[in-house]
Amino acid sequence: MKRIFSTLLISLILVGGAFAQRFVTKTGHIKFYSDTPVETIEAHNRQVNSALDIESGDFVFKVLMRGFEFEKALMQEHFNENYVESHKYPNATFVGKIMNPKEIDFGKEGTYGTTVEGDLTIHGVTRKIQEKGTFTVRGDKIIGKAKFKVLVDDYDIKIPKAVIENIAEEIEITVDVELDKLKS
Questions:
Q1: How many domains is the chain built from?
Q2: What is the bridge-based pairing of β-strands 69-70 and 91-98?
Q3: Measured by CB atoms within 10 angstroms of the end CB, which terminus of the chain is less buried, N or C?
């Protein structure tokens, strides 16, 4: 999967002569949120690489798992060492496509609804997902936003029984990326 992601990202950025059709960022933002009657857990990650090819609709993400920052250091330690095992699985990736690229006028400012479909890999497990989101065109930037939920069990993340009531079975993921036009 790592090689597929790298190949797709490189091809999105380098292949072809129309560099104006590609948008990238290295500073996207992903938040995850877990809420139970016992505890609310929130983490933010601003080490998110993403690329979008507006011609083909190809859309990729790479997220450094150790980049998630928590309010409490102990939560961050447990997240990395016990749950996502970031030493074994350092990245989460998404490799997919915009399902309606021709319905989005990337040359005209505005906000457009979309559906993105592809393979989300977390903790070494890959699942096909399809989620709704928006793209906002603002000058030479495209802002992508989505909010969706993932089940912890779907990605083989084991929660110890001692803290099972502290962590929701379904985690809310918020994606917010500001992609810049790739300059030739």
A1: 1
A2: unpaired
A3: C
In angstroms, the CA 81 to CA 143 distance is 32
> How confident is the prediction along the chain (184 residues), in pLDDT tens digits per residue?
555 545 455 454 444 444 448 999 999 999 999 999 999 999 999 999 999 999 999 999 999 999 999 999 999 999 999 899 999 999 999 999 999 988 999 999 999 999 999 999 999 999 999 999 999 999 999 999 999 999 999 999 998 888 888 899 999 999 999 999 988 6
Here the contacts of 161-166 (C-beta below 8 Å, separation 24 or greater) are 165/36, 165/37, 165/38, 166/36, 166/38, 166/39, 166/41
Q: Which of 99, 133, 138 is nearest to 113 (CA)?
A: 133
Rounded Cα gap, residues 164 and 179, in angstroms: 37
> Mapping DSSP to helix (H, G, I), strand (E, B) and coil, where does residue 39 land?
coil
pTM exceeds 0.85 for this model:
yes
- CATH classification at residue 173: 2.40.128.110
- Nearest-angstrom CA–CA distance, 143 and 45: 17
Domain containing 135 equals: 2-181
Q: For 163, list phi and psi in degrees, rounded to 5.
A: -125, 15
What angle (nearest 5°) sits at the alpha carbon of residue 174, between those of residues 158 and 167? 30
